[in-house]
């Protein structure tokens, strides 16, 4: 098997490791040893797994690739935000971000190389979709972030699947990633500390609601009506707003969990008082939180930020409809903060 055809060692869930070990007549406790080396000790080679027999280490080396990601660039903001540009085996690059909050460190991971959704305010879609990431390529982002934090004796407390790409268009790999993340033998991140964001892939919102776990769901909404949302988010033509809201109501009934709606405020596009009133009427009665996001400046998009006083007015109007509303704290404003922005710069440099 050529090295590029082998799965990554981080591709397998605990259940899949059990099957792999069983097929090789290895005792069940080898799985715990394997997971410990990968996710607790965070070693970088099979040779370091010294309590595994040499024959097993050789078989692991023959069967798996170890290192999915190489660090190309690391940017650190004055607010403590860290942005990584990781290189993949096939020459592509992806971004991962560590965000520091007063409640702990959060890591934002990417699920695809590029994106095909086409949101007009997002740098991730520049250049379109190249490919899906494997489970291991997503998992390795958290492992690499944790290794960075190890230097300061800190820990990843929560994970948001909100980086480049649409997680629900890489559904199986994303769900396997969550299982590894949540595994008591794996990265040990509690389900309630994991949030997945979708732009509105309706069939998989229903699937996600039926997973019967405590992982949080966020919907990228960004407009209060069909026509405006279609102009900002082409996916709305495939899965119209009315169908999206039906799926959201199903999620709320099925899970009993609060839903988050993300709303990027874009100067002159979706940020007027009339939009706030329309959004308030649309979501009134839902167990939801609206997260207002001052849009990041992306040179290729030429969108402007909503003035600060207008953001607070937008929030005030939503509050009047008794909708829980927050304004996202900005992270990494002095670095390439927008999703896909650092990768886009890197791609342009590689092509020039």
Automatic annotation (TrEMBL):
InterPro entries, per the entry: Aldolase_TIM, Methyltransferase_A, RlmN_N, RNA_MTrfase_RlmN, rRNA_lsu_MTrfase_RlmN/Cfr, rSAM, rSAM_sf
E.C. code: 2.1.1.192
Keyword Transferase: yes
Catalytic activity: adenosine(37) in tRNA + 2 reduced [2Fe-2S]-[ferredoxin] + 2 S-adenosyl-L-methionine = 2-methyladenosine(37) in tRNA + 5'-deoxyadenosine + L-methionine + 2 oxidized [2Fe-2S]-[ferredoxin] + S-adenosyl-L-homocysteine; adenosine(2503) in 23S rRNA + 2 reduced [2Fe-2S]-[ferredoxin] + 2 S-adenosyl-L-methionine = 2-methyladenosine(2503) in 23S rRNA + 5'-deoxyadenosine + L-methionine + 2 oxidized [2Fe-2S]-[ferredoxin] + S-adenosyl-L-homocysteine
Residues annotated as catalytic: 95, 339
Primary enzyme class: transferase
Ranges for domain Radical SAM core: 101-334
UniProt KW keywords: 4Fe-4S, Cytoplasm, Disulfide bond, Iron, Iron-sulfur, Metal-binding, Methyltransferase, rRNA processing, S-adenosyl-L-methionine, Transferase, tRNA processing
Cell location: Cytoplasm
Binding annotation for S-adenosyl-L-methionine: 165-166, 197, 220-222, 296
Domain of life of the native organism: Bacteria
Binding positions for [4Fe-4S] cluster per the UniProt entry: 115, 119, 122
GO-annotated biological processes: rRNA base methylation; tRNA methylation
A GO cellular component entry from the record: cytoplasm
Cofactor dependence: [4Fe-4S] cluster
Details of cofactor binding: Binds 1 [4Fe-4S] cluster. The cluster is coordinated with 3 cysteines and an exchangeable S-adenosyl-L-methionine.
GO molecular function annotation: 4 iron, 4 sulfur cluster binding; metal ion binding; rRNA (adenine(2503)-C2-)-methyltransferase activity; rRNA binding; tRNA (adenine(37)-C2)-methyltransferase activity; tRNA binding
The keyword Plastid is assigned to this record: no
Protein family (similarity comment): Belongs to the radical SAM superfamily. RlmN family.
Function statement: Specifically methylates position 2 of adenine 2503 in 23S rRNA and position 2 of adenine 37 in tRNAs.
HAMAP family per UniProt: RNA_methyltr_RlmN (MF_01849)
Stored NCBIfam families: rRNA_mod_RlmN
Additional detail: Reaction proceeds by a ping-pong mechanism involving intermediate methylation of a conserved cysteine residue.
Protein name: Probable dual-specificity RNA methyltransferase RlmN
Organism: Lihuaxuella thermophila
Gene: rlmN
């Amino acid at each position: 098997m050529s090295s590029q055809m082998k799965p990554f060692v981080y591709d397998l869930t605990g259940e899949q490791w059990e099957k792999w070990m069983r097929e090789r007549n290895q005792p069940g406790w080898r799985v715990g040893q394997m997971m410990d080396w990968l996710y607790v000790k965070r070693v970088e080679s099979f040779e370091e797994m010294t309590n595994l027999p040499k024959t097993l280490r050789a078989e692991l080396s023959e069967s798996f690739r170890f290192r999915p990601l190489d660090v190309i660039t690391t940017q650190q903001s004055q607010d403590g935000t860290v942005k990584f540009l990781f290189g993949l085996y096939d020459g592509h690059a992806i971004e991962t971000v560590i965000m520091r909050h007063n409640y702990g460190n959060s890591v934002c991971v990417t699920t695809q190389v590029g994106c095909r959704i086409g949101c007009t305010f997002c740098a991730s879609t520049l250049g379109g979709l190249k490919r899906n990431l494997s489970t291991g390529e997503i998992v390795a982002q958290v492992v690499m972030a944790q290794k960075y934090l190890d230097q300061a004796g800190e820990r990843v407390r929560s994970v948001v699947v909100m980086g480049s790409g649409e997680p629900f268009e890489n559904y199986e790999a994303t769900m396997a990633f969550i299982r590894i993340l949540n595994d008591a033998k794996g990265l040990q991140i509690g389900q309630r500390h994991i949030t997945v964001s979708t732009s509105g892939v309706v069939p998989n919102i229903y699937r996600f609601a039926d997973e019967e776990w405590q992982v949080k769901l966020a919907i990228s909404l960004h407009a209060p009506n069909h026509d405006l949302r279609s102009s900002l988010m082409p996916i709305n033509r495939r899965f119209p707003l009315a169908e999206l809201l039906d799926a959201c109501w199903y999620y709320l009934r099925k899970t009993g969990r609060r839903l988050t709606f993300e709303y990027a405020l874009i100067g002159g596009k979706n940020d007027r008082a009339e939009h706030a009133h329309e959004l308030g009427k649309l979501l009134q009665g839902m167990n939801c939180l609206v997260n207002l996001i001052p849009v990041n400046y992306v040179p290729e998009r030429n969108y402007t930020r909503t003035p600060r006083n207008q953001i607070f007015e937008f929030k005030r109007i939503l509050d009047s409809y008794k909708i829980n509303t927050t304004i996202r704290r900005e992270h990494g404003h002095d670095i390439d903060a927008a999703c896909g922005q650092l990768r886009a710069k890197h791609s342009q440099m590689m092509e020039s």
